[in-house]
Amino acid sequence: MRTNILGKTGLTVSALGFGAMRLRGLSQEESDRVLGHALDRGITYFDTAAAYGDSEEKLGKAISHRRSEYVLATKTQKRTYREAMQEIEQSLCRLQTDYVDILQIHYVNYPQEYRDVKREDGAIRAAEEMKAKGYVGHIGITGHRPELLARWLQDYPFATVLFHLSMVQPFARQELMPVAESLDVGMIAMKPISGPFLSKVTESLRYSSASTAHVVLSGMESIAEVDANVAALEWKVDQEERRALEEMAAGLDEHGCRRCNYCSCPLEIRIPDTLIPSRYRQKYGLLEAGEKLWQKSADKFAQCLTYEPCREKPLCERACPYHLPIQEEIRKAMR
């Protein structure tokens, strides 16, 4: 497994990271096998969160006895000092460790949320105190709006940043990564196959790894997935392959959606899950699970076009910070 230095943290990490959110769908016995196998295959970066069900607990039970072999990152989505402190302490207990290498302020998408965590009684103060006591190595941030993450990296000395990067969501390459590089911030690229959607898995993983990200974080839940992902990132992307991957990805981002989740639909159309894979679906098709998810929304597209409260201006478009023509995108999808 190839390794990188994770920015100014100085930590040596595997180029492929293990995203542990999907552990909540596994038994403890299955988790033990998959996580142990990932370590054996050279994966040394493991990412979880307090919000991921029992993921922390399963990870702790499975590999805490090998704690010296991996870099451990978890997250708190709490915004106040008191709640964040309590959650960090619970995470340490569940992970069966006396320290985490990286504590990330989780899912910060609104300017007000950032102001909240920066307050004197905000979550960052809790992270700083735990860092001073040796329970936290470095403080990071995660979110779905790359241009805002770039602004926040310039406001506070976060050591790492976790963000979307894939063929269908390449926006961080221009909106975030140049700033992160200039500040030597550790870059962790998540959702390289956009959750359950992108059918060309190897090419998708390699597209993300062709960037300057230090870790490509992939959610895995089986030994077969671990082996396939390790094989996909076994060697570096050269210039010729990079050009081919760029050609493959051309136009797949025209939907413009960052998955900020500002929008909501009273008809329960999953707007990001409709827009983001739309061009890819037309060109390459989706994974089976992704197609099923897409179809759940597609069944309601006709209602969207006649829904009375959205006739003058669709509710989702009023909420979208990128002013995307969402209803027109749905019309295209129907056609």
TrEMBL record:
Annotated CDD domains: AKR_unchar (cd19100)
Signal peptide annotation: none
Domain NADP-dependent oxidoreductase residues, every copy: 16-208
A GO molecular function held by the record: oxidoreductase activity
Pfam family membership, one: Aldo_ket_red
InterPro entries according to UniProt: AKR (IPR020471), AKR2_Oxidoreductase (IPR053135), NAD(P)_OxRdtase_dom_sf (IPR036812), NADP_OxRdtase_dom (IPR023210)
Protein name, entry field: Aldo/keto reductase
